Amino acid sequence: MADYERDAEMDDTLRKHGQLGVEAPSRREFLSALATVGTGAVVAPGWEPPQRALNSASPRLIDVHHHVFPPDFVKNLETHNPQASTWTSAWPWTPQKSLAEMDRHGVATAIISIPAPGSWGEGQAARSLTRMCNEYSARLSRDNPGRFGFFAALPLPDAEGSLQEIGYAIDMLKADGVGLMTNYGDKYLGDPAFAPVLEELNRRKVVVHVHPMGVGGKNVVLGVPNPWAELPHETTRAVLSLLTSGSLVRLRDIRFIFSHAGGTIPMLAGRIDETTRFVDNFASKAPNGFEYELKRLHYDIAVSADPPAMAALKNLVPSSQIIFGSDYPIEPIAVTAGRMTKLGLSNTELQAIGHENASALFRRSTINMRTR
After folding, report:
1. Fold (CATH) for 3-368
2. Pairing, β 207-211 against β 187-188
């Protein structure tokens, strides 16, 4: 029996016992929605059935790439982008579904964030939507102590509104960090327009999770779904924007986490390092060298726990910079959690990647209490 048939059989069993609550999309619907909307992950064959995704040596996981879909966020997204209804209906999320999935796959704590495109809209509308999302996430965290932390959303490219929201989300709501997109329109994170926001995050020593922004429903290459290549490249562009603007050196106290094993950065690092001579005054932007800056960043492994991607990442950065993430509900947690145990990692590496590295970033006791 094929893996996806076993998975479907498991879902049918759970439905009969009332554990899924809603009708899950078929494999064909799932892939169709990805191709249409351009989300951040693609189902790949070969992942373990849920009941065998983790073995006894696996750590209690901290999932730093776990999405939530607040009802008002979904309504707003579908209003502005009719295509989004295909996407949101493909992944009918509820807090109960998240907790059940976490329990099935050994996730102690999820650091939740809203998915791309983040806060949709302009001006006061974007500020209001952002506030609603953050208060929703904070309430979910309070109601489930130790199970959820959250990355606060910001209404970028509105810098003034973002500065106000940073103060409210961190000081009042006790956010565990901030979630940013790789770009907002044609501006990537190193753009001067975002400098005041990044400087405030640096002053506060905030953990910042960076998620790729979708490029819309139209595929860049005819017949090629955007998640295959465009989304990983968005992460690469954001890293390079921060590098060439000097932001990585200037903002030493921001603790960045980049999604999906850093996109294509691990594969391109050698080529880029060899050609930094083409960048004016590169030495002033990265005085310790390109690879030194990359080794300081953190990388989640959502949908990237496969031998080629992990070999490239581990050859670039130490294991201390690699963190578990799932991309749930766009991907089942078992996709990454199951594959992680088949990479030949030592128990020490599994513990570090699974929860110890995240614990070092998120010092709040409510996050660490379930993984000790």
Report:
1. TIM Barrel (3.20.20)
2. unpaired
Neighbours of 276 (CB within 10 A): 15
361-to-69, 102, 177, 253, 300 alpha-carbon distances in Å = 25, 20, 10, 12, 13
CB 264 within 8 A of CB 212: no
The answer to whether the beta carbons of residues 211 and 327 sit under 8 Å apart is no
CB neighbour class for 210 (10 Å; exposed up to 12, middle 13-18, buried from 19): buried
Q: Mark the ranges of the chain whose per-residue pLDDT is less than 50.
A: 1-58, 365, 369-372
Give pLDDT tens digits for 143-176.
999 999 999 999 999 999 999 999 999 999 999 9
Is residue 136 within 8 A of residue 112, CB to CB? The reply is: no
- Three-state DSSP class for residue 42: coil
What does pTM read for this prediction?
Answer: 0.81
**Element containing residue 107 per DSSP (H, E):** strand 107-113
From 196, 201, 124, 183, select the one nearest 155 (Cα to Cα).
Answer: 124
CB neighbourhood size of 226 (10 A) = 27
The DSSP 8-state label assigned to residue 328 in this structure reads B
So what's the pLDDT on residue 117? Answer: 76
Q: How is residue 334 written in tokens? A: 């078992």
Tell me the backbone φ, ψ of residue 112, rounded to 5 degrees.
Answer: -85, 155
Tell me, what's the pLDDT at 38?
35
Q: Check residue 370 and give its pLDDT.
A: 47
Q: Quick one: pLDDT at residue 139? A: 97
Q: Smallest Cα–Cα separation from 112: which of 168, 63, 66?
A: 66
CA dihedral for 50, 55, 58, 60, sign (positive or negative): positive
Residue of 134, 129, 132, 180 whose CA lies nearest to 157: 180
Question: Phi and psi of 172, rounded to 5°?
Answer: -95, -45
Residues pairing with 257 in the sheet:
209, 298
209 contacts 111 by C-beta, under 8 angstroms: yes
pLDDT of residue 83: 64
Other CB atoms within 10 A of residue 60 CB: 15
Token pair of 279, please?
């960048």
Number of neighbours of residue 120 by Cβ within 10 angstroms: 20
Helix 265-274 vs helix 307-316: crossing angle, to nearest 10: 40
